[in-house]
Task: inverse folding
């Protein structure tokens, strides 16, 4: 085992302290959601879910605490965040992928997309301690710009790491909004056009997407339809999941549809951006990938 990189440990501690300071200033409460979950905690990237038998039931290691955080919002704690681990059975050995990483997630009541965008920008500026310029553009305009740069991309494609690198190389920090609804998570609020969702991804130079968030869908019929027709649910059920795991969430939204927004922050990618290190695995003390399980 290599020696401890003390400077990395201290930096991670300081950045985490800074993030907690920011959320406290913004009136958020830190909570601790579960990591042993049913389908609602394992639906961020279904093909890479870790599943196991839980006393005769199908269970998963959490990929997201998002829906659990929304439970708090609907039950009187209107601004919450969590610092947790996300688990992905990701076989690729790359500089961007890990099987375990630190994910900071937050949810807030009475927050629309424009307010979410401002919060994300202010958070990055708070962490970096300087007023970074952030280029805000729609997904459609991002695709047009990438096509002009010679990238083989069409409307409806997700942004690849190469696409993110092109945008950030030109503009620095970029925030891309209003992706097509078919390539985004089922509970992102559908825009008035019916074609896009009220979402935003923040891209950092040298890293790519570091924060992904959206205004949440608060219209129960639309939410239920998007869930039942989603590729995510189909994949989950094919892997042994159960759609009834979502009943509590659908009932929650049905009881009181409120405006709310939230996002997930890739903490290790924030560290990579600050340190300008080549690989995400150089930004954690105990990197985990398909070949690494012990120090």
Result:
């Amino acid at each position: 085992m290599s020696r401890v990189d003390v400077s990395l440990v201290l930096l991670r501690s300081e950045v985490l302290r800074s993030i907690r300071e920011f959320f406290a200033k913004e009136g958020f409460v830190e909570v601790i959601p579960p990591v042993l979950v049913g389908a609602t905690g394992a639906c961020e990237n279904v093909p890479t879910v870790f599943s196991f038998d839980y006393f005769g039931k199908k269970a998963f290691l959490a990929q997201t605490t998002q829906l659990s955080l929304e439970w708090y919002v609907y039950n009187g704690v209107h601004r919450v965040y969590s610092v947790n681990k996300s688990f992905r059975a990701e076989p690729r050995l790359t500089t961007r992928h890990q099987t375990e990483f630190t994910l900071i997630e937050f949810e807030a009541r009475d927050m629309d997309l424009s307010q979410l965008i401002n919060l994300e920008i202010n958070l990055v500026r708070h962490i970096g301690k300087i007023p970074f310029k952030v280029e805000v553009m729609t997904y459609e305009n991002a695709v047009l710009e990438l096509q002009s740069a010679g990238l083989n991309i069409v409307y409806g494609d997700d942004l690849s790491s190469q696409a993110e690198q092109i945008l950030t190389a030109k503009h620095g920090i970029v925030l891309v909004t209003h992706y097509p609804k078919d390539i985004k998570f089922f509970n992102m609020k559908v825009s008035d056009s019916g074609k896009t969702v009220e979402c935003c991804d923040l891209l950092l130079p040298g890293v790519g997407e570091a924060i992904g968030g959206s205004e949440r869908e608060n219209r129960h019929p639309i939410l239920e339809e998007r869930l039942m027709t989603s590729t995510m649910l189909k994949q989950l059920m094919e892997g042994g999941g159960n759609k009834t795991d979502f009943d509590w969430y659908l009932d929650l939204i049905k009881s009181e549809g409120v405006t709310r927004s939230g996002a997930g922050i890739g903490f290790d990618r924030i560290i990579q951006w600050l340190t300008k290190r080549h690989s995400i695995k150089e930004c954690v003390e105990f990197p985990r990938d398909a070949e690494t399980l012990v120090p």
Remarks:
- The chain has nine helices and eleven strands.
- Residues 6-25 form the longest helix (20 residues).
- The chain has one domain: 6-283.
